[in-house]
Amino acid sequence: TSTITRETAPISLKTFNVPNTDSKVAKATAAVYDWDTFKFEPIRESQVSRAMTRRYFKDLDTYAESDIVIVGAGSSGLTAAYILARARPDLKIAIIEANVAVGGGCFLGGQLFSSMVLRKPADQFIRELGIEYEEEDNFIVVKHAALFITKLCSKVLELPNVKLFNATCVEDLITRPTDDGKVRVAGVVTNWTLVSMHHDDQSCMDPNTINAKIIISCTGHDGPMGAFCVKRLVSQGYIQRNQMGCLDMNRAEDAIVKGTREVFPGLIVAGMELSECDSSNRMGPTFGAMVLSGVKAAEEALNIYET
Ligand code: AHZ
């Protein structure tokens, strides 16, 4: 191993002379950095590699046996993670997200419009996160959907009992026979998303696995991706597929929240994925149900843990 000695003192306000200037910008930056003498601390490339890979492999080891796996880091999945991880700091929660970026359909409010609408009473959760909003009668508006999802995600990632594996795809479910002759979901089969995308033109690259007592699937409605766990269970004849109904905001949001449940032993489904097994309506760009479905999924998981 190689060691690089730290020769410079840690950066502090006292390390640098603050030049006397009237420029507001210069004042703001010069308070911390003197660009004339500025220099990064030295580094060896292998230090960067080791800093990342050591932690990642430790996480793979730690979370190979998780308590709860959440599939999909959109608005419903991240809300479920936030509630669960805070309620039970003793549980290990792995979030698997196929995309590089988190957020799913929540970086825009709808079409290419930025603000995000949430119907009441989901405003309570937005206050809990400390996000500012405007009130309009029966709903609230957050000025940018990305403000909501990035704030939620940063709060989730700060929690010590959560690991987000992004750019990682759930390719299959692990199932187990139960004592009463039935079957339950007992984990997920994962692969790098880039590998999953190339199964047709590369030789077989076998996947990896995570065991868990409970899986919460939040992969969104069917499309190029999405509804993954529901579709997999349907393919085995374990549950029946009932495709998402047409858009009806009023019916859709109540149905998704109330319907959030363990649809198959070991598998809770939340968010828009639920519409693919319940045939509930599409809701379009209103996100209250995604948030409260995440809350309900967390409660369902806690009930299973506590019984
Ligand atoms: O990348 C997906 C997205 O971030 C991820 N995902 C899908 N399949 C996956 C797999 N493995 C790992 N096999 C996977 N990750 O799941 C996330 C789903 O996020 P989403 O925002 O699509 O779902 P949601 O149910 O949380 O929110 C739905 C938001 C919608 S869609 C809609 C409409 O079409 O009317 N209305 C709302 C509010």
Report on this model:
The protein is of the alpha/beta class. 35% of the residues lie in helices and 21% in strands. Strand 7 (168-177) and strand 8 (183-192) form a beta hairpin. Helix 3 (75-87) runs parallel beside helix 5. Residues 1-7 and 9-16 have low confidence and may be disordered. It binds ligand AHZ. Ligand AHZ binds at residues 71-77, 96-99, 104-106, 169-170, 218-221, 225-226, 228, 271-273, 282-284, 287, 290. Ligand AHZ binds next to helix 3, strand 2 and strand 7. One of its GO terms (cellular component) is nucleus. Its cofactor is Fe cation. Belongs to the THI4 family.
Descriptive terms for the model:
307 residues; alpha/beta; six-stranded mixed sheet; three-stranded antiparallel sheet; 14 strands; 35% helix; binds ligand AHZ
What string, H for helix and E for strand, traces the elements in order? HHEHEEHEEHEEEHEEHEHEEHEH
Mean pLDDT rating: 91
Beta fraction of the residues?
15-25%
Q: Unreliable segments (pLDDT under 50, ≥5 consecutive)?
A: 1-7, 9-16
| Computed CA radius of gyration, to the nearest angstrom | 23 Å
Intertermini distance: 49 Å
- Report strand order across the widest sheet: 6-2-1-10-13-12
Structural class estimated from helices and strands? alpha/beta
Distinct helical segment count = 10
Q: Give every kind of bound small molecule, once each.
A: ligand AHZ
Largest sheet: 6 strands, mixed
Number of strands: 14
Modified residues (2,3-didehydroalanine (Cys)): 204
Protein name: Thiamine thiazole synthase
Main location: cytoplasm
Subcellular location: Cytoplasm; Nucleus
